[in-house]
Specification:
By secondary structure, the protein is mainly beta. The protein is 9% helix and 46% strand. It has seven helices and 40 strands. The strands form nine sheets. Strands 24, 26, 27, 30, 33, 35, 36, 37, 38, 39 and 40 form an eleven-stranded mixed beta sheet that branches. Strands 7, 8, 9, 11 and 12 form a five-stranded antiparallel beta sheet that branches. A hairpin with a 5-residue loop joins strand 5 and strand 6. The radius of gyration is 30 Å and the shape is elongated. 41% of the residues are buried.
Amino acid sequence: MKKLLLSLSALVLVGSSFAQQRKVLVESFSQASCGPCAAQNPAMETLLAANPTKAVAIKYQVSWPGYDPMYLHNSAEINTRVSYYGISGVPDRVLDGTNQDATQANIDNRYAVASPINMTISHTINPGFATADVTVTISAPGVWNPANTVLHVGMVEKTISFASAPGSNGETEFHNVMRKMLSGWTGNAVVASNFASAGGSQTFTFSNVTIPSYIYDLNELGFVAWVQNTSTKEVFQANMSEPIALSNYGIVQSVAVPEGYSCANTISGATGTVLNQGNTAITTATINYSLNGGAAQTIPYTGNLAPGATYNFSIPTLNVTTSGTQVISSYLTNINGSGLTNPIGTATTTFSRVTANGAVGAFVQNFSNASFPYNNYYVTSPTGDNWVRSTANTGCLKYNNYAYASGKNGETYLAPVDLSSNTNKSMKFDVAYAQYQAENDKLDVLVSTDCGATWTNVYTKQGANLSTVPAQTASFTPTSAAQWRNETVDLTAYGSANKLIVKFKATSAYGNNLYVDNINIGGSLGIDEEDLMKVNIFPNPASDVINVAFEAENADYAIAIIDLQGRTVASQFHSNLTGEQTISFPVSELAKGSYIVNISTGGMTHTQNIVIR
């Protein structure tokens, strides 16, 4: 238990006739992927709710141990506060500038220490809902001589609610989250001359403060102010301007398209949802929508949308003239005849349109170009947990299972390939992966011959089957060629496709990092790889038994049947095989459906689909 430290000035003030009642500033440090945070935060919120007149709360969502979107919104200011207090673990609390446990006793003890000042704070949301005005007044009934003292004002969201946990610790509700500091961490100087006489005061006015686009709910927007000595870190006073009810306010809650990937010249079936987030019914409004920032088109709304209610609308067919990522935006104007034309409550969605024909000849990608994603590639994730380019191995793809919560997934679509132009109907790629302990992070490779309308899984591995190095608890980055494994996937079944699309899909189990590099579709193979490719699996489809026939080269061979969930359902290992081989597997007890057969030898893997019926 850390001891409560009080400055000499605070002790002297206890006996002063000008002593004022303080509110205790409780600064919390937490994270959406921190297990202990999820365990302790509910009790913390109960404590704060029991002390509305004694304590003011502000919370910083930090960078570790995993993914947290609220940290990413304002990482620089959060990092500065972490450094200021020397925070090294979460959860952690600071009361009035002193790092200590947030308990009822500690709040009461600090609350009993009088303050030299009073402070008021208020705010308004300006017409158009894009900016706010904030006013803070500090007053001292007695003479006060502040030194190295500043006013800090933080924009907070009192409650942020997610439909599903954004991180890995299961938390879906977050309170008093700092979103932006109005003057950074420099703050605004509290000038001693203003308090040289009894009854002195200083007023701070913040006009037209921009409300960031990442604010989740404007109805939860408040402002926390506190006066702090930057040298001793002691906080003299704190207060909060609570969220205010908004009239004639609504947002476009979401915009959606039926497909995230398209080869068409138009996009049809896009929809949106309007949410009334104000405290008055919306009877009229203009719904605006645009493609790629072009001229906005409008849809009039007339009705009676009650507070909290939603309205679904359809966006007419849009002409798509360019290739690559497309952005549809939608927002409201002129709510209830307000005449406001600035965008209110903007929502966006993206999709990718590919106009290119399949690349003729070998497709080779080593990710050495830093400008990822490349032309006619598509990177997507339902929750923003995307594949990224890593500088490891002079450039490769990385999926951050180390940070992404279990169940999160991301996909990378390669540019289309004309496989019909190649004599080699196969794909090679390198993979590197370490488990954290025993997690089953998963890699799937899927192909489509109809521009993503349907997909077939041609490769799946997870956990120990995917690993190329032993498990480790440190974040894994491959540092040598020995930590990579080359994989070969048979694409003969798709050999006539002139616009084959291949996607790599990663699914996190909150384990460790996964890397993919040196993708080669239709390129030349080495002699050993050509031999390995001479595999015949029959019958296919099968109902009783499958036979794996190949020419062995005095080597060890591991053969496995894997279901589409990445589970090994049958396997055999054979040592020192030479010459023609036929390995049989009974399959009558397997569930009907698609499976993948892996044949591995000498650091290479051949993959082929089979069907059990």
